Amino acid sequence: MAKSKVYFTNMRTSFNENLPQKLERLIKTAGIGSIDFDKKYAAIKIHFGEPGNLAFLRPNYAAVVAKVVKELGGKPFLTDCNTLYVGGRKNALDHIDAAYQNGFSPFSTGCHVIIADGLKGTDEALVPVEGGVYVREAKIGQAIMDADIVISLNHFKGHEATGFGGALKNLGMGCGSRAGKMEMHSAGKPYVEQEPCIGCGRCIKICAHDAPSITDRKASIDHDKCVGCGRCIGVCPMDAVQPAGDESNDILNKKIAEYTWAVVHGRPSFHISLVVDVSPYCDCHAENDVPIVPNVGMFASFDPVALDQACADAVNKQPVMAGSILSEREHIHHDHFTDTTPVTNWHVAIEHAEKMGLGSSEYELIEI
What we know:
The chain has 13 helices and 16 strands. The protein is of the alpha/beta class.
């Protein structure tokens, strides 16, 4: 089997070419033009950044990808799904506000922002996962599944639960609806925190299985009836309904791989990762810490598995950034991500994605 091609360019510029122009040259050289975009909807999956975080990708990069898609005849839109946790992106209105606040508007990027799982994170497509070990039916944001083509534009960085966040994380976790995110994070079923609950009954109205009930103006969920769909999480106005959040990191990584399969299977996809501002934790944080390594460069491939492997290898070749959290850790694992967060093992997602047929960890790195 031939190695997957991963294209790479560093962050050096010249008087004749700036970084957005260099990104355009990278993705065109990597073959994005071989996809038939003519009159087709192209979902550009990106993380807009939690308000307060400054490590997310600049909107200038998204503008480049949207421009190229338009030149090829496509109809691009920037997209993400609502978050499971309580924060600045838990519903579509707040999420769009956050995107605009961080610079992602139609005026700066040349395309619109669509929150794929709708107002409350309940607009989802149920996608069968062939060969799935942990996921039988992935819950993916409807607008993402309505698209003809998927492009992942990833900020490659560390992550406290998965080791790092790259193409697989951006697509698998990022494209899951709120219920889908609950399925990936939880081995159990949602529960109700009693103090914030106001007994409004919205969880009862949304449930098709009569699992929630109200006693003394406080809701509770009967886990014998609950099927774990997570819709009650989306409709609760007080964020009292919470996921169990008890899944192991290894199984979380495997579920992410299976959700990624659901997103890309059966349609064209293309993947771009920028290994810059490599913060130790996810852009879902309302803050970002000092990068753990210097900026590396930009990568692109048709293979998300090879892309993640190439980015991880590139990061692990870098010196540790002085003053970062990684500089304070023991370097006993000889792996920057595991040394940053020792409870994680990012190899699990790569290996499971290979088994799912998503791609190969064997790659040829082509520098431009």
